[in-house]
User: Fold these one by one.
Assistant:
Number 1:
Amino acid sequence: MFGVWRLLAKAFVVERLRSDSEANRTPKSKRPEPKRRGHVESRPTFSRLSRDFISMARESEEPFQSDADGLNEFSILGYQETRRKFIKQVAGTSAAIAIGPSLLSSAPVDQADSTSAAGASTDSVNVHLKINGKGYALDVDPRVTLLDALRERLQLTGSKKGCDHGQCGACTVLVNGRRINSCLTLAVMHEGDEITTIEGLARGDELHPMQAAFIDQDGFQCGYCTPGQICSAVACVQEGHANNDNEIREWMSGNICRCGAYPNILAAIKEAKTKTA
């Protein structure tokens, strides 16, 4: 790229020399009067130099001749060229320099992708999960979270992916009766565990008391956080942490409802507790 700019600078210098030589051949009678004392000539600005350089490309296609400093013709690689052709060559060279490396590196990137895909398939681990009373055998990457295994591999999409950082509680499921954030645990860590999702709470067409209470008390609005809220509420009651309003609020604080339906959620948990007691 540095060589390209050197060629551009050379073209500009040659043009200036040509202009100076033409000015020297101009008769004195046609030359402008000398500037008055005290007149300060303005320095050429970048925009002015740019306009001068662009005007070079708009001139005629004929090669120029200059006798200044022995420069009889402007040639590139031994061939006589016009300024317009020179600029076209520079533009083509610049495009080749910019695009060439990406074209050359495209093949290695594709090869690396195929290699990584093959490596990922050979690194998969067989895991047996027991979800909602059913057994599942999966070949998963060791890095797959329980949430992704449920949603992407088993199509159990009731557990939602909210923040994916364990902060919102939308992915809450029950593992051996204990509520956890499924986005923060790996699927391979739960070999043989009893996993219950929102899909496994109901008994056929009969809703779980907590599900029915959420409907009766209108404990949801958009419904995105509701599966996690219900699973967490079921565990909250089973753990014995639903004795009063403040205790329920404290033990349900890990589940966020962005719609602000907290009073209705509190009422639903209290109602469900009375039905399960």
Note: The chain has two domains: 1-29+43-122, 131-276.
Number 2:
Amino acid sequence: MGVYVQLLVNALQIGAVYVLFSLGLTLIFGVMRIVNFAHGEFFSLAALVIAVSLPWLVAHGSPLALAFGLACVAALAVVLGLGKLLYEFGFKRFQRDMTGSFVLSIGLALLLQGLYIEIFSPASRKLPTLIDGTVRLFGAGITQQRLLLCGVALAVAVGMTWAISATRLGLALRAVAEDHEAAMLQGMPYRRIALAGFLIGTLLAAVAGALLAPVAVISPSIGSDYLVKGFIAVVIGGLGSIPGAIIGSLLIATIESVGGYYFDPSLATIAMFVIVMAVLLVRPTGLMGHAT
């Protein structure tokens, strides 16, 4: 019993980050109809900024918790600035252009990875533990640090899901995702809404990177692994579907947790791709997606 609870807890820990990452991907696709392969670089940049700024702040006398909070604020600001820059000079010109945005995002991903290596160096970094201690839950153990980070990630995911379904901006994003031409005929400023959707998606990737930074080994390529799994999650759930992104993320996290325990991590990865193929054969639009 304890083993199963532990595997479930592990899946929730991993899934919480995957959910944030995948929500950003699916939101950008839904609003702009682009598949952003540079999305993982927002994740990487947030983690790298924290990895560099946190030790500097601690060395200059800031308490560890305060230093982490300030580093997170700086990371989110830097990533949002980069997102705005890439939108204005890149993605803005390729909205609803799958081929053009694909080529652009691949090029940007390679460019940003090279810049990160030059700026931050290719060395891996590990942050100090923010909170010590372990919590026992039905025989399963989870560190207090991971529990807190998981709780924050789930709270952000729930808040974002509520905002998309209940706020004026969220309704505008949904309307544009459903039919952007009809939304424009109703007087909705499509370009402003598209920018808002892109920046929110970028922010979600940055939050995921910031939350993972204290419990992961950080390198300039860390976002690439999460990009692959994020795409698997949104393809399974359905591109453009927020409930689908959540379901796909939790499914991928469960496969990774259970498969990594009972078999080999490489077999768990293979299982993810097999499930993607099976889902696409049975339902090409994904579990919760719909044809456009």
Note: Residues 2-282 form a domain with the ABC transporter involved in vitamin B12 uptake, BtuC fold (CATH 1.10.3470).
Number 3:
Amino acid sequence: MGALGTARPLVGAMAVLALLAAVACGGGDDEEAVQSTLVPSPGAAGTPAGTPAGTPAGTPAGTPAPTESPIPTALEEQLRSMVLHLSDMPDGFSQVEESFSTNEEVANAGDDAAEVLAQLTEWGRVMGHGVVFSSESSDEGGILLVDTTVSLYESDSGASSSFADAVNTARTTDWAATAGEAIDVGVEEIPPLDIADEMLWLRLTGTAMIGEPATEQPFVQDVVLLRVGTVRGSVSVVSAVTDVAPVVEDMIRTQADNMAAGVE
């Protein structure tokens, strides 16, 4: 079974992942987080809807996409270096989504574009990046889905203000009431690790439809917000069992190290 096929049955867990990611990446806006968590439509980055991903705007539908990929910019490479990588995942994982987000793209994804853009500009946000990894099998339990994001700011203070805004949102949201099809949702705040300038760790538990064919199973989702200098990051891990805590902590520590190395 492919990774995307595995991800589809995570009905309740994916709903929670999307909601929690809304406070996990970039700052002050749900739209950026959802973009980094869910596979965006072909038009998400300015390409007309219905055009195959990677096809230049204006190319007629059905025209083969170019075989050469654009050369990443230095900023994109810097952002990529600071998230988790496929080599950091357990065996049997694959990358199912990668996205970059400018301030304009984030602001234009919602109803309050001018207000959101002004806030991101005030914080000095430069650009964001997100990657999603999925297990190729949901039948054996363990970790099912990993979402990793970073966003770069011009100053420590801007990144800290964005982090504080996200933390306030996370702590005041009624997750049980907004968890889609997941049921019996509980939220616990875990003591932070001493690995970043600022950190928030939330752990959600509940029941969701998992597997194929989908069956009702308990899930755990760890969502961690981090700030290291001028970088905000997040790690969100959905698992079907509770004995993966050491693996989750290793991922969090790895991302914190990557963020620190990326801004040295």
Note: The chain has a mean pLDDT of 76.
